[in-house]
Structure formats: structure tokens, C-alpha cells
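Apologies for my clumsy wording, but can you show me some protein sequence, whichever is easiest, together with the matching C-alpha cells, please?
=====
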Amino acid sequence: MRRRQIYDPTVGRTYERIDERLASFPATQALFFVATAPADVDAHVNLSPKGIAGTFAIIDSLTVAYLDLTGSGVETIAHVRENGRITFMFCAFDGPPRVLRLYGRGAVVLPSDAQFEGLHLGLGVWRRRRWWWRERRRRRRR
């Protein structure tokens, strides 16, 4: 009996850069996933759903940024600091099936870091959040 081929390697494509067509897809998705893993091969992969509007931005054809709003911990940050590996995945939940994965090397950039100012421009929620925290601190001090 001949086995049926389930995976067709001609379907998946690899791109060197994020072009305009690819960049338009993440902008329309309400949910995306971030995956990281520690260097230890016996440790587990961390896969987290993300979905707050304005927390992901394409900076240029080779650079993306996202705001990591911690929930159950800071595994993503710990893994990226350890080895830099990170993958983003966007899936179409309506319309034709489509998946976009962005594989790359990441870096943790904190609000106190010099390069943060340039990265957060595409992250509208951060601008509002920073203002909210600033206002909240002022109110507490009074």
C-alpha cells in the first residue's frame, strides 16, 4: 500500500524579507503567537498567544517589534536573553487558510534603553500605556 503524502514542500515558501504583501497580513490579525525555547534541549518550548491591538509592529523589511505584556511569567524574555531565538506565527481564522511565521533573533529592549524610542513608534498601545502609568504614579504621590 502506498502512503499518501500529507506534507507538500512546494506549498511552503521562504522569503528573505518582509515585503508589503506579507506585511499586510499581520496587521489584519487579532491574534498571534510567540514561541521561544531555552538552550537546554530537555526544557520545554514556550508558546504564548498574544492579541492586544497595537502590540506588534513591522519596523522595516527585516525588523519587527512587539510589546511583551507579561501574564504568567517572563519565560519569553528569559529565553530571548539566553539565546535570542524567537518565532512569531500569524494564522487566518476566517477566510482562506493562511499562516505566516517569522523566524529570527530577538533582543530585549526595555523602556530605559536608548533604542526603545525608535521601536515603540509603531506600538500605539505603548504610547497610551506609558502615559497611563505616568499619570497613575503622579496621582499616587499626591
The chain has a mean pLDDT of 78. The chain is about 25% helix and 25% strand.
